[in-house]
Amino acid sequence: MTSKPFSIGAATPSDVPILANIFSDAFANDRVTQLKSLGRDSDFATNMISEPLKAWLQKPMRCQVLKAIDNATSKIVGWACWGFHGYEQQATHTPEEKSINDDKSKHEGENKAHCSQKGSSPRMHGSHDEQGQPRSEGVTNISAKTGAELLEAITDQDMEQWLKILMPKGTKCMFIVAIAVAPAHQFHGVGSALIRWGTAKADADEVSCWVHASEAGHRAFAKGGFREVGKLELDLDDFVPGALEGEGGEGKGEWGRYTFRYMQRLSHP
How is the beta sheet containing 98-100 ordered, strand by strand? Predict the structure, then answer.
């Protein structure tokens, strides 16, 4: 009989330090996270996610924070936060802790997250809809002192516009707030199981779900049934320290383009 490598259960406040460290490790090679970390403490990413995690755990009617536990070591190896929009009562009940068989197919890109990343006009290659057409709403009226602040502001403003499209008034849906898998456990189905928990509930509730995907994560979401409905392309070299002051910037020319993808999955009742 094939053993089940890990289980999915509800996270608790005491798990926050471990979840935050997993997030930091999972995003260590993400260029946006690296750019935002320039000149900051080494634990910047860990601190950035810790407070949001505590807040999500205090809002059970709006969020469900899940953890994946390695059955052999009892260690947490990944986590996800699913959000609920338009649910009139308790959005979710913790499912019976379930194990996911290792025979499931392996999925790529499990170091991903939808996390609000705030960030004059740099060479932003624009936000586009699913047909590749620029959206009419532009990124405007942004003032920022640093490249990191500008990057944060641009991505926040773009997210606000997409929220109007993906979650218009009266909509009931689910969305992935954040998801991360420890590097040593990526490509073993952990992220896919955390995604399936939410898509199974969305199907049962007959609602759509969506995610703001990083470059590393979008393939895993596509395998989970999400399809791209829009994207934001940025030239990260325009946000390096010194770029706003016209000084060329630290590492100018080395960061390249980065694409955030908005992905949606319709229910499959």
Answer: 98-100, 6-10, 63-70, 76-85, 173-181, 208-213, 257-265, 227-235, 124-129
3-state SS, residue 36: helix
Residue pair 264/227 in contact (Cβ under 8 Å)? The answer is: yes
- Cβ pair 4, 72 in contact under 8 A: no
Scanning the chain, the segments in alpha helix (DSSP H) are 16-26, 31-37, 44-57, 147-166, 190-205, 218-223
Say how far apart CA 145 and CA 215 lie, in whole Å: 26
List per-residue pLDDT tens for the chain, 269 residues long. 457 899 999 999 999 999 999 999 999 999 999 988 888 888 999 999 999 999 999 998 899 999 999 999 999 999 999 999 998 644 444 443 333 333 333 333 333 333 332 222 233 344 555 544 444 344 555 556 688 888 999 999 999 999 999 999 899 999 999 999 999 999 999 999 999 999 999 999 999 999 999 999 999 999 999 999 999 999 998 888 765 444 444 555 688 999 999 999 999 87
For 92-113, letters b (16+ CB in 10 Å) and e give beeeeeeebeeeeeebebbbbb
> Rounded to whole angstroms, what are the CA distances from 124 to 113, 119, 121, 239, 245?
21, 12, 7, 10, 17
Q: How far apart are CA 190 and CA 187, in angstroms?
A: 7
Q: How far apart are CA 76 and CA 185, in angstroms?
A: 10
